Amino acid sequence: MLRLPLCNRRRDRSHVVCSGTHVVLWLACGRGDHSVDATRSIPLPEPGKFWHITDLHLDATYHLTDDPTKVCFSSKGAPAIKAGIYGDFLCDSPYSLIQSAFTKMSQVTPQADFIIWTGDSPPHVAAGELSTDMVIQLMSNMSETIRDHFPRLPVFPALGNHDYWPQDQMPTSTNTIYQAAAKLWAPWLQAEALGTLREGGFYSQLAQPGLRVVSLNTVLYYGPDKATANATDPAGQYQWLQGTLEKAAQNLEKVFIIAHVPVGYLPYAREITAVRQHHNERLVSIFRKYSHVIAGHFYGHTHRDSIMVLLGPEGKPLNSIFVSPAVTPIKSVLEPYSNNPAFRVCFYDPSDFSLLDIWQYYLNLTEANEKQTANWRLEYVMTEAFGLKDLQPHSLLQLTLSFVLPQANSFDKYFSHFLVSYDDSIRCENGCKLSQVCAMVHLDHKAYSECVGGSSASEDSFALL
Ligand SMILES: [Zn+2]
Ligand SMILES: [Zn+2]
């Protein structure tokens, strides 16, 4: 219902907001752009664009069978009673789902400049079901699948907490998996990047002149990683990061930070940072210091669609942060909701690499299984959905502030997108909404605590915004 008028409105605005986007408009709308009067267009350069895909979580055991408890190992014995050819909400991704996502992406032209892929190839299964060799095999399978669909596109991967065996236990020095990743990703990365990837699971590389991708191994800062429990600078990544950002500043480059586990607080929990709290504080302080170099942050891991704005100590918006939803639709039996499978394309201004827009694609999994066809569609265009002129930090801050205005319904829309249109009847109010909004704009402990005001997730007052 939303989609067609959305495309029409967008077409009218493309002259003003972001000239050149009309070329891609028709691709998403699935029809020609005949109504555009080219003579009225201001000849600005085409926006740059890149795909962001994350959390593929391939479950190679997925198969349709009469016994719903045996559909996939990742359901851990729970009955996948709605299982279809593209998956089930209690299972990780069947290969058909992943294949359909990349097929859709490869059909959208003109093609993107590059892909960022923020990790987690293996399924959610007990450690005993996997091994180092199996994890490498899964990472290899996903890398090959991407290469098959995009033989000429640069790809910038990041390691996820599942891209290790046992999961989460990333070491602080070279090991079989970092070495395997360097081998698998050698077609995409240069020697210097492969060198640090082999040693610590992180790297940086120029994506194009003036734009550097910094791929962090934030699993080293993740709570369950026992290997880094007592390390102040695991694998020397902080020192490397600061040196890399310093050099980028001197060379007048802009940086996209990509990583699996995000910085900041989890939007669906209370007082829980995604990485260990002291590592979160350190990351926030580095990102603040170099915010003039960083043009955007792109993360995965939560499987949900969310935004954050990094504020300076005085509340000035410094950086836009985007967490992309997952391809896998999995949830546990105990969770009330999940996400539909998703991937996205991000548009940026090629003159300064600032973020202009995000087009979020999704697959209605229930419908895809019913119709036995994977009809990936545009879920929403971020600027259109929220009436923003771009996705720069001050625009995102305005949006988050609008969420707490009385009678504002923009937050309901945001929350529906948070779940990738899993179920629009699910509401997030009171304590749930407070957790979401505080996590959006307060990434450090002091500011976040003041925002939630010591209230528990079930209480219903906003302390501050
Ligand atoms: Zn994941
Ligand atoms: Zn993860």
Would you mind describing this structure in some detail?
This protein is an alpha/beta fold and 465 residues long. It has 2 domains: 1-45, no CATH class; 46-401, 4-Layer Sandwich (Purple Acid Phosphatase, chain A, domain 2), CATH 3.60.21.10. The chain has helices at 3-13, 22-29, 95-107, 132-149, 176-184, 191-200, 237-250, 277-289, 365-371, 382-386, 393-402, 410-418, 430-441, 445-452; strands at 48-53, 114-117, 155-157, 203-208, 211-216, 254-259, 294-299, 306-311, 317-323, 342-348, 355-362, 377-381. Strands 3-2-1-10-11-12 form a 6-stranded mixed sheet. Strand 8 (306-311) and strand 9 form a beta hairpin. The two termini are 33 Å apart. 48% of the residues are buried. The model is unreliable at 1-39 and 458-465 (pLDDT under 50). The site of one zinc ion has 6 residues, from loops.
Name the overall outline: globular
Work out the helicity level. 25-40%
Beta-strand segment tally: 12
The N- to C-terminal Cα distance equals: 33 Å
State mean pLDDT (0 to 100 scale).
90
Low-confidence residue ranges:
1-39, 458-465
Strand content: 15-25%
Number of helices: 14
* Largest sheet geometry: 6 strands, mixed
- What structural class should be given to the helix and strand makeup? alpha/beta
The CATH architecture of the largest domain can be named as 4-Layer Sandwich
List all distinct small molecules, including ions and cofactors, that are bound in this structure. zinc ion
- CATH level-4 homologous superfamily of the largest domain: Metallo-dependent phosphatases
Domains (count): 2
Q: What is the radius of gyration?
A: 21 Å
Order of strands in the sheet with most strands: 3-2-1-10-11-12
The CATH topology of the largest domain corresponds to Purple Acid Phosphatase, chain A, domain 2
From N to C, what is the helix and strand string?
Answer: HHEHEHEHHEEHEHEEEEEHEHHHHH
What top-tier CATH class of the largest domain fits best?
Alpha Beta
